[in-house]
Every structure is written in C-alpha cells, then in structure tokens.
Design goal:
Blueprint (H helix, E strand, L loop, with lengths): L1 E4 L10 H13 L4 E4 L33 H9 L4 E4 L2 E2 L5 H14 L4 E6 L4 H7 L6 H17 L2 E5 L4 E6 L11 E4 L3 H10 L2 E3 L5 H17 L8 E5 L5 H9 L2 E6 L6 H14 L5
Parallel strand pairs: 1-2, 1-11, 2-3, 3-5, 4-5, 5-8, 8-9, 9-10, 10-11
Antiparallel strand pairs: 6-7
Helix pairs in contact: 1-2, 1-9, 3-5, 6-7
Length: 285
C-alpha cells in the first residue's frame, strides 16, 4: 500500500515555507505522493459542496487555493522522489493545448514524477463565470484526455473532436515518458466509466467500502468493454481507519494508494504527525 498527502497546497499550505516543510518531511517519512486541489475562483453563491452541512467548501469559501500545478513545480525543486499529483485539476475548464504544455513542463522539471488527477467539476457557477457550458463538461473531459495524450506522444500533433480541434502543430517539451498517468477523480458512475475507458487510475471521493466496490466494478467492466486491461488501472481512495485489517480489506478490493490529509498546519505538528504515521502505519504495511 502506498500513501499520499491530500489538500497539500491549499489553505495554510499556500505559504511556501509550510508547503516545503510538508513536502520534504512527507518524502523523508516514506509518503509516495503529494496532491494539490483546484478551483480557479469561487462564486459567492454556488451549488452546495458535496458532503458538508453548510454547503461551503472545506476551509471555507475564502480559503486560498493556488493554481494546482505551479506549487508542484516548487515542490519538484526541493524534493527528489515524492510524486507530484493534482487531486484534482478541473479539466474541461482548461484548453488541452495549454494543459499539455504546463503538465509536461512540471513533469520534465521533476524528472517524470507527475500524476495528472482530473475531474469534470461540480460547481456550475464557476463554469458560468468562465463562459463554459456546464452541461457539456463530461464530453469535454473525455475529449481533453484524448487530446492530451496526442500532444504528449506525437511529434507533430493533430486532433479533431466536437469540442477541441487543432493541428498539425508542435508542442514541446514532451513528458519524460511521452505520457503522464491520468487518474480520474469523482464518485459518480460517469466518473467510474471514464476511468475505465480512458484513465490510468481512479480516485473516488467516497470512503464506504461497499460503494468503492460498486465503483471499481464499473471501472473494470468499462475497461473490458474498451479492450483495456482492468488490472492496469490504479485505484486510490480516502479512509478514516488505518487499522491493519481495514487497510488489508481495501487492498483486497484493489486499492493500492490511500490519501490522507496533512496532520496539522504548524511545522512541529506536521513533523510529529508524519513521523508517527511512518512508524505506526507505513513501516508496518
């Protein structure tokens, strides 16, 4: 089992000193990945955030949410092994040509450590502020994933879809391996189907094991329909329990990565919490 740190660049961690402290100590303590989040702007009035009583986002609607990629470039410069992941980048809000360039740049700077976690988004008002049709976001996400792979892989890139059309054109640099793993976020059947058809991984935002089983079954079924190997799709999740039996149960349904929140927002609490997690959890699984 691998362990990642989520919500690693927002709120208090928008401060570079605290982000650097979290990243270097997470790497030292054996964490495999660091995950950023994204909202380019938060309209004052918006759809309720899923899973909260007041409808506001974790940390409040005025919490600092830096760009998801730029802080990862900063982390790349001060670390050596920890993987740099977006969890998630709202893909239909960005043109794939720009996204391909930005992600490939961070991947080169980090010597191939990037994971691109993507989602189709949930906040309708944010899409409206950007002038993007909220109801087309799913189809745009599917096309953008395919366009990214073309831009990363091909020397001269062309793509023709309903929502994105370009080329032939040159897009450099290419990622280290001419590809970046794309992990699909979300907890809907549509997200699970997207992961099965197009994803290198799936990261649902639910913790219930039975719900995870249902979603993973959809991923595998859709992968088989698309002629893909279901076992090649990496499965990640969140959890509240780190008991050995519970982690084993997650492993038994296919989970290979668990993402946790930072253990605090003060340097001493972060160091102490990460070292405790390393001693009690990471070293024993």
């Amino acid at each position: 089992m691998k362990f990642g740190i989520g919500f690693a660049t927002s709120g208090a961690f928008s401060d570079p000193a605290l982000l650097g402290h979290l990243a270097t100590n997470a790497e030292r303590c054996g964490f495999e990945s660091l995950w950023s989040v994204e909202h380019v702007a938060v309209p004052v009035t918006h759809l309720p955030y899923p899973g909260t009583r007041d409808g506001k986002m974790p940390g409040g609607d005025e919490v600092a949410i830096p760009d998801p990629l730029i802080p990862l470039a900063y982390v790349a410069a001060i670390t050596k092994t920890i993987r740099l992941a977006t969890g998630i980048l709202i893909l239909p809000q960005r043109h794939p040509i720009y996204t391909a360039k930005e992600v490939a740049t961070v991947d080169v700077l980090s010597r191939g450590r990037v994971i691109l976690g993507i989602g189709s988004g949930w906040m309708k008002e944010e899409f409206e502020a950007l002038g993007i049709d909220f109801h087309r976001r799913g189809a745009m996400t599917d096309e953008a994933i395919q366009a990214l792979r073309v831009l990363w892989r091909d020397g001269t890139s062309s793509f023709s879809g309903k929502h994105f059309k370009f080329g032939p054109l040159h897009s450099y640099p290419k990622p280290v391996n001419r590809n970046v793993p794309i992990h699909v976020g979300g907890h809907s059947p549509a997200a699970a189907k997207r992961a099965g058809r197009y994803g290198d991984g799936f990261f649902p935002t639910v913790m219930n094991p039975e719900k995870l089983k249902e979603l993973f079954a959809i991923v595998r079924s859709e992968a088989q329909k698309a002629g893909r190997d279901p076992d090649a799709i990496e499965l990640s999740c969140l959890t509240r329990s780190f008991k050995p039996d519970d982690l084993k149960a997650l492993g038994d349904i296919g989970v290979s990565r668990v993402v946790v929140n930072p253990p605090g927002t003060k340097p001493e609490a972060i160091t102490r919490g990460l070292e405790k997690f390393q001693e009690e959890i990471i070293s024993r699984v």
